[in-house]
Design a protein that fits this description.
alpha+beta; FAD/NAD(P)-binding domain; D-Amino Acid Oxidase, Chain A, domain 2; Enolase-like, domain 1; 3 domains; ten-stranded mixed sheet; seven-stranded mixed sheet; 16 helices; 30 strands
Amino acid sequence: MSESYDIAVVGGGPAGSTVGSMIKKYAPHLSVTILEKENFPREHIGESLLPTTGRVLNEIGAWEKVEAANFPIKIGATYKWGSTDELWDFNLLETAEINLEDQRPGKFEAWRMRSTFQVDRARFDKILLDHSRSLGCTVFEDRGVEKVLTEGNSVSGLQLTDGKTITAKHYIDASGNAGIIRKALGIPVDEPASLKNIAMWDHWENAEWAVSIGVGGTRIQIMSLGYGWIWFIPISETRTSIGLVCPAEYYKKSGKRPEDLYLEAVQSEPRISSLVANAKRDGHVKATKDWSFTAQQMVGDNWFLVGESAGFADPILSAGITMTMVGAKECAYTIIELEEGKHDKEWIKKAFESRQSNRIFQHIRFANFWYSGNGHFTDLVEYTGEIAKEAGFNMDAKSAWQWLGTGGFVSLETAGAGLAGHTIEQIKNIQGMLFNEESEWAITKVNVFDLNIDGVVADKTPVYENGKIHLGRILRKGKLELPISGGFRTALEILERETTLDGIIRALRMVSAKLGPIVALSAIEALEVMLKDGWILGTYDPTKPLLGPGDIPRTPNIDWNRDTLDPKVKLAPAIGG
């Protein structure tokens, strides 16, 4: 017995449901089946999202359904991480912007577009899978793939546990870490040698939220220990996910059961232990390997890898679901364009693979920097040293910043200067928190800027918008790429007519007055990257002024924790509120 579809998706989690929903929205004539081995709802970790997720949810028409589930709104995160015991916050937006009178459910507008959710994955994943079904996907639960039929680098069919065979024109591996199609095709993966972590977690009822902001708003808590770190993520009004991440080698050497090591960690961290003093845990500690990897191939003749089947980055950045859903969106767009035949097939497939691979690699690299910059990790010194060595350098954690910034801050996804979804300014602020010192800007040391475009070649890049892949423009110099859009476009237009700092500042003030300070800041960040990567040759003219650090606009989204001084923040009684 067999069934045939245009697209067969293995896995019904956020990767599979997002790609299915996106295809049915923009190409409803294509038949899509989603094959899920479990019955939803089912528990999963990866509960803290990033704002980009909201844009994808809104595009497929699922944001309001997720909002109606009344998940906690993620305003940001509070960290104990770096060279000091002082707490610091990464705010997605300032509390002053939040209307305390807003009720739930809300709308995807204003400050809600810049915040996100902390979700109970059992409920969240079911909402998304049911949404795919409502859009016309044929969804099967409790129907796993027993065998992947292959012919060379192609998939020819899927044999299911119920005896049926599924055939399709396109196959998508959205099976998570199981990597069902990836493994059947023998696709190898690259794994960093250092920091092979494991995660242990349990869920607690009636733990106090550290902070309450407005209606349903809070921050997750990330508290480092000497040998790892703890996450504290409220996922409903009464339910909280608490997990421990530590090196697998540390766990082995401890000689302790996962449950014993987990409870010891929770009780040893003062802030976390106070929040769970009157809570009750489920009592089922789960554990899994939690180390980063990337697949060496993510697209083939008729198949795609999305989500964790393609790669995984350490959860310290809360980026798992975001990378999954963005990759699923781009996979859906790619398949739709392959069907319509308007672009070169190999080009759009190569672009899909390149963007996924770069996205995962950037998050791995940035997560490694977070580890290398944590002075609390007394038991991780040997591991954090290996992070730098893997990049070919013998350096301490502070020096690793220079390695991190070399040729890696151009984001084609956002057409801005950033890394792993963070702007240059955010990254420099994070550096300040990790090392408790101000970071330097290269553009404050020169005051004459000349474009260096020798050997530059114009090229194209995909832009994924409204169900179509449009052609964007980039400049290419060796392995470096520069998009002619966003802050880079603004910077390039200014540099075509101005070379002195005075002239550039005048032009930026005009941009700020016309388009807003955020646009001007993005152009300043673009100048910083272009100078560092050699797109600009900078020199110092002693007769002309320099740009001072205070002249660079600052968005105060990363700062020392000041909850006791913020009237809009309600602290948990257990921590002094």
